[in-house]
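re: the backbone from monday

yeah here it is again, tokenized this time
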């Protein structure tokens, strides 16, 4: 079993009993569409120099790399909470402020207990990690995948292990992370790479990107999501800049310039993003891999209304990146979101209403009649009336979404063509 370079002998674990395991995730605000999320630890021994978790807004106390909060009772709570969930959706594990498979997990085995629980449920799961320790639980995650879906995400931004040692000293080596991706893929899981944060002048170079994308294509990942670095003013930026001064003093002026605006979000100057994103899109196009989690991954794992929501948002991103006029699409998306938010608020208020019936409402708008014997639609609420074309105010888009909903076609994120296989 490959292990992290640091075994964490110098850790100071702090046991904490939490009141709930699952948080409701924001469907629209993250790279991966998770509906629920949890994290067994807080703070992280991987010690990535750029880690956003150091920022004041996350309230992580003590030494970020050694004072690790351990949520000991999380598996017990998970066992209770999972069967009560009303809406389908991915359980997303890990966060920007801790890695679920960091070295302390080798001793504490909280993730292993969570995986045992999730392997008996029907909820799809996704994990984001920089650790090959996840391979220890591969059999359990393969069981999750057999019941619903397991998506294994690795964060990786560089093709050289020397760079890894400087910027991610406690995380697994590159070969170990690639091997983990290969083995999860062989087990039938969806695999993807978060190629972020790319560091200006270090990992955003053409040389590194080419080598990285080539290696990722070799292990047959399903997608690569790249992005740049944010440096929030305060602890995160100070820590990063002092490390930069020690290891790459030649780049201090460049970073001072890119991050001089000290935006609360930590974003660099807009002109940098304008230069970086087309380069990243070109690398994705070259290896013919999408830069987003394709909506086919979410198929049958989210409710239909959320699957369409994801598809519409992705279409906006994909078309905008190609310079296509998205104004009509934006208007239609807004109309869809208004309908969806209104209906969901009603379903949320009525606990006896079943979200499957909201799916049936959407299907009915697309012209699908209820199966015989199921009575009228929806079963628990007052049905929506009209057609999807009226709802969206856009016939062409309604026909497109109808093909996805009714004929179960999928959008190819590289060619932007509808494919017949779902
Ligand atoms: S692995 Fe993730 S959470 Fe841990 S230090 Fe690195 S960036 Fe932060």
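seq for it, each position gets an aa:
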């Amino acid at each position: 079993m490959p292990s992290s370079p640091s075994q964490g002998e110098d850790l100071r674990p702090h046991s904490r009993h939490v009141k709930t395991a699952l948080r409701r995730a924001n469907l629209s605000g993250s790279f991966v569409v998770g509906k629920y999320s949890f994290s067994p630890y807080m703070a992280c021994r991987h010690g990535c120099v750029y880690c956003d978790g150091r920022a004041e807004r996350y309230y992580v106390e003590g030494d970020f790399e050694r004072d690790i909060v351990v949520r000991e009772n999380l598996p017990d709570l998970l066992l209770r909470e999972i069967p009560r969930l009303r809406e389908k959706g991915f359980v997303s594990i890990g966060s920007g402020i801790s890695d679920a498979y960091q070295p302390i997990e080798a001793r504490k085995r909280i993730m292993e207990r969570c995986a045992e629980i999730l392997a008996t449920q029907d909820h799809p799961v996704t994990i984001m990690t920089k650790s090959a320790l996840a391979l220890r639980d591969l059999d359990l995650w393969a069981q999750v995948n057999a019941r619903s879906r397991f998506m294994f995400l690795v964060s990786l931004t560089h093709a050289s292990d020397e760079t890894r040692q400087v910027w991610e000293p406690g995380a697994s080596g590159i070969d170990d992370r690639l091997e983990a991706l290969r083995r999860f893929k062989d087990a039938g899981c969806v695999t993807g790479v978060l190629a972020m944060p790319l560091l200006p002048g270090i990992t955003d170079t053409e040389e590194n990107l080419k080598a990285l994308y080539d290696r990722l294509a070799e292990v047959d990942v399903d997608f690569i999501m790249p992005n740049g670095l944010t440096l929030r003013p305060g602890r995160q930026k100070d820590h990063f800049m002092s490390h930069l001064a020690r290891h790459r003093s030649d780049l201090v002026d460049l970073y001072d310039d890119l991050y001089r605006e000290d935006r609360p979000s930590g974003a660099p100057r807009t002109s940098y993003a304008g230069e970086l994103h087309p380069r990243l899109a070109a690398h994705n196009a070259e290896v013919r891999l999408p830069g987003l989690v394709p909506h086919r991954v979410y198929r049958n794992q989210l409710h239909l209304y959320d699957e369409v929501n994801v598809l519409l948002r992705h279409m906006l991103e994909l078309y905008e990146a190609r310079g296509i006029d998205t104004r009509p699409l934006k208007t239609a998306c807004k109309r869809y979101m208004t309908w969806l938010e209104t209906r969901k608020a009603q379903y949320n208020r009525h606990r006896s209403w079943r979200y499957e019936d909201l799916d049936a409402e959407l299907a009915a708008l697309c012209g699908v009649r209820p199966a015989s014997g199921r009575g009228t639609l929806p079963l628990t609420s007052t049905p929506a009336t009209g057609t999807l074309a009226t709802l969206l105010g856009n016939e062409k888009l309604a026909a497109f979404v109808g093909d996805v909903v009714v004929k179960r076609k999928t959008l190819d994120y590289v060619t932007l063509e509808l494919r017949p296989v779902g």
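Residues 164 and 175 are 11 Å apart (CA to CA). The chain has two domains: 12-293, 297-419.
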